[in-house]
Design brief:
The complex is a heterodimer. Chain A is α/β, with parallel strands linked by helices. Chain A has a single domain (about 5-225), classed as P-loop containing nucleotide triphosphate hydrolases (Rossmann fold), CATH 3.40.50. Helix content of chain A is about 30%, strand content about 25%. Chain A has helices at about 45-50, 95-100, 115-125, 140-155, 170-190, 220-225, 230-235, and strands at about 5-15, 20-30, 35, 60-65, 65-70, 75-80, 160-165, 190-195, 210-215, 215-220, 240-245, 245-250. The relative contact order of chain B is 0.17. By secondary structure, chain B is an all-alpha fold. Chain B has one domain: ABC transporter involved in vitamin B12 uptake, BtuC. Chain B has 14 helices and no strands. Chain B starts with a helix and ends with a helix. The chains are: A alpha/beta, B mainly alpha. Chains A and B meet through helix 2 of A and helix 3, helix 8, helix 9 and helix 12 of B.
């Protein structure tokens, strides 16, 4: 049996008397792709914060590589939501990737030849070589997220945490960036915890789904969890899950719930 | 008319004057290095307004020191460290920070004016705190400025890489385990010290021309994280040393010379920078 990268034991998180999740027990093994789904405000981002040591559990325990989680870790790669980097920021794509390799090291930002070679390798691996020396601020959203994926894998992480990395990307780039993450996971055997409100772009890659809603959670393969009975139970109201042309559409979930947010995109033909 | 220009640019007895102020020129160059190195961080951390706020409290500290007859540089440092820490601890979010600065700044300036009004000494000293005076700084104070500058430079060199990471990409830096909050406090302390020493040359009102303009100019022409501070230092040193050299004969304060040189460099960089952007758009 492989040692889990991340393991939670009876983890409970509540704010005041509002409980986000209770008794969550979970092991994520190397190379596993776990999608964390659910509407806003159910503790998806709080789960990431807990893994990063920025949020304390109310009870239970959480370990990363067999140790209680600390305040972040060099062994974690983190891909945030796409946020435009301000125009004029003195930072090129390759510098962002270099931070992933040695951003923790003290001293002047002079990179050794080994680091420069590593940065070139990573840029190549994520297909960003051609804009390596371009200021990050001038890149498009899709290009920036590509570089972000590079940054996250540059330090040979054991775990990739993705916090809605596809948000505000168009369908074409959503697919490209999620495929890139999946490719790197397989190549490096890295565990992936992927927080998203829309499972469709990553449906073919996901091993397991952790679904958070209404203070409850369900865990299993997408086929086990993304079913009308399961979601109706979680939402406490009749919800219908429809599968159509390899995509999942959820109907009737209380508002704020995401999968069907992208319904309107489904009629568009995705660019090839 | 020629009288007017003769007053601004006067180079008679220049050689003798140069000997008299050569210590000031060396100190000015070192202060230029400090301003040039701090600047890119001020820009990426969006602290230009904070610099102004810190400098007003630094001015209050310096004028209190003048009134009490103690070392002006010490007073200036005390004021700016206090302001920098308050802004750093209370203003973690940009909006909060701006309102704290807006509250502190007039308070500091008001205190400073009060202390100066009560001060009975030479009025040149009073004016100097607001608009710059390096040539009149005496040798022990000059030495103190140089020592503090060296501390700031050493501190910046030590934290450079993690500080840049935390400045441009704080979420990922925190996830990677960097002490982002501590780094930000450390930077505010270094910024406070840099402001206090810069005030001695260009004065409290014009500090931005040393701590912001050179970096803003550099960032117009390059996005390299290595070239940006190098150019910024070059621009800041040129402004300070050039300002001292031009001001020498005329008996006017050096700050207008420094601010004008630094402004002209910025204008030139902006023109070069806009040419560069258009070219990229055309080729893209």
């Amino acid at each position: 049996m492989t040692e889990p990268v991340l393991s939670l034991r009876s983890a409970t998180l509540s704010f005041g008397d509002r409980e986000l999740w209770r008794n969550l027990t979970l092991d994520v093994v190397p190379g596993e792709f776990l999608a964390v789904l659910g509407p806003n405000g159910t503790g998806k981002t709080s789960l990431l914060k807990t893994i990063l040591g920025q949020q304390k559990l109310t009870s239970g325990s959480i370990e990363f590589l067999g140790q209680p989680v600390g305040k972040g870790s060099k062994r974690i790669g983190y891909i945030p939501q796409q946020k435009l980097i301000e125009q004029g920021t003195p930072l090129r794509a390759r510098d962002l990737v270099a931070f992933g390799v040695n951003g923790n090291r003290w001293g002047l930002p002079v990179s050794s030849r080994a680091v420069r070679r590593r940065v070139d390798e990573v840029l190549e691996a994520v297909g960003a070589t051609e804009y390596g020396s371009v200021p990050v601020a001038t890149l498009s959203g899709g290009e920036q997220q590509r570089v972000r994926v590079g940054q996250s894998i540059a330090g040979d992480p054991k775990l990739l945490l993705c916090d809605e990395p596809l948000l505000s990307l168009d369908l074409h780039h959503q697919r490209q960036v999620s495929e890139l993450i999946d490719e790197q996971r397989k190549r490096l055997n890295t565990a992936v915890v992927f927080v998203t409100h829309d499972v469709n772009p990553i449906l073919g890659m996901v091993d397991r789904v952790l679904y958070l809603a209404g203070g409850r959670f369900q865990m299993g393969t997408p086929d086990e969890v993304l079913r009308s009975e399961v979601l109706s139970y979680m939402y406490d109201t009749p919800v219908e899950v429809i599968r159509s042309r390899g995509r999942i559409v959820v109907l009737g979930a209380p508002e704020g719930y995401g999968v069907h947010d992208h319904l309107e995109h489904h009629t568009e033909t995705a660019p090839q | 008319m020629s009288d007017f220009w003769g007053q601004i640019f006067n180079f008679s007895d220049y050689g003798e004057l140069l000997v008299l102020v050569h210590n000031s020129i060396i100190a000015g160059a070192i202060l230029g290095v400090v301003g040039g190195l701090v600047g890119p961080f001020v820009m990426t951390r969006d602290l230009a307004f904070a610099v102004h706020g810190v400098s007003e409290l630094s001015f209050a500290g310096a004028s209190a020191a003048l009134l009490l007859g103690v070392n002006v540089v010490t007073g200036s440092i005390a004021g700016s460290l206090l302001a920098a820490l308050l802004i750093g601890v209370l203003g973690t979010r940009a909006r909060e920070r701006n309102s704290i600065i807006a509250v502190l700044m007039p308070f500091g300036l008001g205190l400073g004016i009060l202390f100066l009004a009560l001060y009975k000494g030479r009025s040149a000293n009073k004016f100097g705190l607001l608009t710059g005076q390096i040539v009149s700084v005496d040798d022990p104070q000059l030495l103190m400025l140089v020592i503090i500058s060296l501390i700031v430079i050493a501190g910046l060199v030590f934290v450079w890489r993690p500080l840049s990471f935390a400045s441009v990409d704080p979420d990922v830096a925190r996830a990677k385990g960097l002490p982002v909050t501590t780094l930000s406090i450390v930077f505010m302390i270094l910024l406070g010290l840099a402001t206090a020493v810069s005030i001695q040359i260009v004065g409290a009102l014009l500090v931005l021309s040393l701590l912001v303009t050179p970096a803003a100019a550099a960032m117009r022409v390059t996005a390299s994280p290595l070239l940006t501070p190098l150019l910024s230092v070059l621009f800041a040193v040129t402004s300070v040393v050039g300002g001292i050299l031009l001001a020498l004969g005329g008996g006017l304060p050096i700050s207008p010379y420094v601010t004008t040189i630094s402004f002209l460099i910025y204008v030139v960089c902006r023109i070069i920078g806009s040419r560069k952007t258009t070219r990229r758009q055309v080729t893209a």
